[in-house]
Design brief:
Chain A: This is Transport permease protein. Chain A: GO terms for molecular function: ABC-type transporter activity. Chain A: It is a multi-pass membrane protein. The structure holds two protein chains of two kinds. By secondary structure, chain A is mainly alpha-helical. Chain A has one domain. Helix content of chain A is 78%, strand content 0%. In chain A, α6 crosses α7 and α11 crosses α12. The two termini of chain A are 30 Å apart. Chain B is an alpha/beta fold. Chain B is built from ten helices and 14 strands. In chain B, the strands form three sheets. In chain B, strands 6-7-8-3-9-10 form a six-stranded mixed sheet, sandwiched between helices. A four-stranded antiparallel sheet of chain B has the order 2-1-4-5. A four-stranded antiparallel sheet of chain B has the order 12-13-11-14, with no helix packed on it. In chain B, α3 crosses α4, α3 packs parallel to α5 and α4 crosses α5. The two termini of chain B are 40 Å apart. The chains are: A mainly alpha, B alpha/beta. The interface between A and B is medium-sized, with 29 and 35 residues.
Chain lengths: 260, 310
């Protein structure tokens, strides 16, 4: 990478990090509060009645899923709102007039989303330590899954921001797509519990949900066991990342939503 | 060397609006060039294409010999843009805004910080460096956009109505600054609705109307084509009764007389006639800016031609 591109990338990334750190009460504190409530209500109050799952207490079981939920939501919303705001205030033009390659623009914005998601991931792990003794089986799986997941959803947020024409447009996908997929992504239950509630068809549908695989891969990193094949889950993540990067690259280089 | 070389530039927006209809334009290095035209003439579209904010439909744009289509990195590096609308992040500080802009052009952060101090001081914004963009007055925002555009030290500066809505004092200080950086070698392209500004600052001029260049010449040559000027005389009384042989006169009221004066004829016969009648002249001024007069004529002629062709 040339020095010019390296400086441009660093500048966009620093600008993105400065933005979410400047408004930390809106960006970093809410996940900590929400996740604390989940730990108290689902983990403590209800978890004792549900009992252990696959040899772990219910609290231990949901911790990885809740961290992953916070990572997904924050990486997506960081980039979608930041890019749309840059379009709305027209300061995206500062980047468009400069000789910044498209891939640098994508990496800069996505890098901002990954930074915020990583900080929030650490914050939620820290909060969870008040409720349960965290055991980590595979550090590498946790780091790789967090990075790949946050990159994927930050890129998805960027695509949302590119297409968005109003502030409503950046809340529709999180509300109607992301939240249902996350709740049906095995954060609060294991595959064995699905058999009792859903027929084969719906079980099949739930298992093609990529978030189901991400949550389980992440859980494997903590507990050492998961409902999915870890290699398949990570391969799916890499494949989806390549696909969304290609889509974002195509949209930005043709000027969709940013050039007339 | 040609700072800007545009050939056959055309733009048709989605929906069919033809903003540019094959524009050819050349700006020499070191020039202070005025691109004038009425609202909707295609000025901002042309600037948008040159600065990569608008996709062209056809034609070519070269900046200091670098083709925007094939050598975009070098072409973009030569251009500094001061857009018409405020387009900086309203929540960032001035210092962050200008330093980040340099970073997008690959200027290392340590150098960017030095330049930020230099340009913010030159534009009287250094004291406000830690204020957010939204806290600035209109004139400060305009100056901030000039400082931002200079951060990568471009060879050509494009200013799209840089003095719109600023008071005369700030406008004059901006003129002085622009003249200074032009003398230092930066090519400047200016669009403005204040025609006295263009007349005073620019050496060459193009007038664009309905997506086409209707005039492209030097300011001196253009002004030389104006052979009649209108003067307004504020007199003690009796304007209604005055007619001067060889001059067209109009009385706006009893104390205000307008006289059309041929450039070659001079004003002496008018004063002689007024003295002969014992009419006291209190003051005298040009009715309108000379360039404004020409601008209106050229645009009206072009539009009349368009109507006839239809």
């Amino acid at each position: 990478m040339s020095n010019r591109n390296m400086t441009a990338l660093y500048t966009i990334w620093i600008k993105e990090c400065t933005r979410f750190l400047r408004i930390w009460v809106q960006t970093l504190v809410p996940p900590a509060i929400t996740m604390s409530l989940y730990f108290v209500i689902f983990g403590k109050l209800m978890g004792d009645r549900i009992g252990p799952i696959d040899g772990s207490s219910y609290m231990e079981f949901i911790v990885p899923g809740l961290i992953m939920m916070a990572v997904i939501t924050s990486s997506y919303s960081n980039v979608s709102s930041s890019f749309f705001s840059a379009k709305f205030q027209r300061n995206v033009e500062e980047i468009l007039v400069a000789p910044v390659p498209t891939w640098v623009v994508i990496m800069g914005f996505v890098g901002g989303g990954v930074a915020r998601a990583s900080i929030i991931g650490v914050v939620v792990i820290f909060v969870s330590m008040f409720f349960v003794d965290i055991k980590i089986a595979h550090y590498a799986v946790i780091i790789v899954t967090t990075l790949l997941t946050s990159i994927l959803f930050a890129t998805a947020g960027l695509i949302n921001g590119i297409y968005a024409k109003s502030f409503d447009d950046i809340s529709i996908i999180p509300t109607f797509v992301l939240t249902p997929l996350t709740y049906l992504g095995g954060v609060f239950y294991s595959a064995s519990m699905l058999e009792k509630v859903f027929n084969d068809f719906w079980q099949g549908v739930i298992q093609i949900n990529p978030i189901y695989h991400m949550v389980n891969a992440f859980r494997y990193g903590f507990l050492g066991s998961a409902d999915v094949n870890i290699i398949l889950a990570l391969s799916m993540l890499v494949g989806l990342n390549v696909l969304l990067f290609a889509v974002a690259y195509r949209l930005l280089s043709t000027g969709t939503g940013i050039r007339t | 060397m040609k700072a800007l070389d545009i050939k056959g530039l055309a733009k048709t927006y989605k929906g069919g609006v033809q903003a540019l209809k094959g524009v050819d334009l050349t700006v020499e290095e070191g020039d202070f060039f005025a691109l004038l035209g009425p609202n909707g003439a295609g000025k901002s579209t042309a600037i948008g294409i040159i600065s990569s904010l608008v996709n062209k439909s056809s034609g070519s744009v070269k900046v200091f010999g670098h083709d925007l289509a094939t050598d975009i990195v070098n072409a973009k590096s030569c251009i500094g843009l001061v857009p018409q609308e405020f387009n900086f992040n309203q929540f960032e500080t001035l210092f962050q805004i200008v330093v980040n802009q340099a970073g997008y052009y690959g200027v290392p952060r340590s150098i960017a910080k030095e330049r930020a101090e230099k340009y913010l001081k030159q534009l009287d914004l250094w004291d406000k460096r830690n204020s957010a963009g939204r806290e600035l007055s209109g004139g400060m925002k305009r100056r901030l956009m000039i400082a931002r555009a200079l951060m990568h030290e471009p060879r050509m500066l494009i200013l799209d109505e840089p003095t719109a809505g600023v008071d005369i004092e700030v406008r004059r200080s901006m003129w002085t600054f622009l003249k200074k950086i032009n003398e230092e070698g930066i090519t400047i392209i200016l669009t403005t609705h204040y025609l006295e500004e263009a007349e005073m600052l620019c050496r060459n001029i193009a007038i664009i109307d309905e997506g086409q260049i209707v005039k492209n010449t030097s300011m001196k040559a253009l002004l030389a084509t104006l052979n009649v000027e209108t003067y307004v005389f504020d007199i003690a009384s009796g304007a209604n009764k005055i007619s001067i042989e060889g001059f067209e006169t109009r009385a706006n009221d009893d104390q205000t007389l307008e006289v059309d004066v041929l450039k070659k004829g001079g004003l002496n016969p008018v004063f002689e006639e007024l003295s002969k009648r014992n009419i006291q002249v209190m003051s005298m001024r040009n009715k309108s800016n000379r360039l404004e007069e020409l601008f209106v004529r050229l645009v009206e002629a072009n539009q009349a031609k368009g109507t006839t062709n239809e």
